[in-house]
Predict the structure.
Amino acid sequence: MKFIDPHIHMYSRTTDDYQKMALSGIKAVIEPSFWLGQERTSYETLKDYWEYIITFEHNRAAEFGIDHYCAISINPKEANNKKFANDSLEIIEDFLVRDNVIALGEIGFDSMTKQEEDIFRKQLILADNLKIPIIIHTPHVNKLEGTKKTFEIIDELQIEQSRIILDHNNEETIELSLSYDVYSGITVYPNTKLSPFRAVNILKEFGTDKILINSSADWGVSDPLSVPKTALEMNSNGFSEKEIEKVLFLNPNTFFKQSKNYRSLE
């Protein structure tokens, strides 16, 4: 069986991870821009980071037969630095049109500040004007409140919902997310997000339409094999091979085909 991990931060992972992922059947990964764990000192360092995930990380994955794509953005935490965020907005479009860039993301809320909202709105409008997919982060704290606010802004700006992934859903937000025409991401991540067991329980209750499973593996205690491990959990809970393929391969493949830079694996 083949898989796609639609949200993983390979910048922070080793080549051993790529080898294990390839052996497990992962054929493609999407790497959204993320916070590196400390404040960047200049938007110039963000340019270097974007260049790295567009080129070097793409080539590193290819050595293991994995297609690597990325999403470019000013992420929610960095949005709080007003000068940094505004400087970055001036040059972001040049990177969004690059080969291997298939979305704008991840964007959204972290601490629910006015500054985060301002940069979120500006990036939403930019992506919608460019007609490219968008990956939206839901906050770790006050998740339901943040998710509701996110959809209010999407509705107000009349952003095309079918090009959006609303990510990091849990039991508290999934019903709301699925009531919109977005794709709903579920992150299987030890300790701070969902286990494969909890993710599969959501699938049991809400079905397999427009739901994506990702690992969001990064610097923290995380697992780049979360997607294939969810396949095992689905299988042990009676899901058919066709249903497993739909959630863990076909759904992300269908979503990202909306980008002209994505090479469909079908």
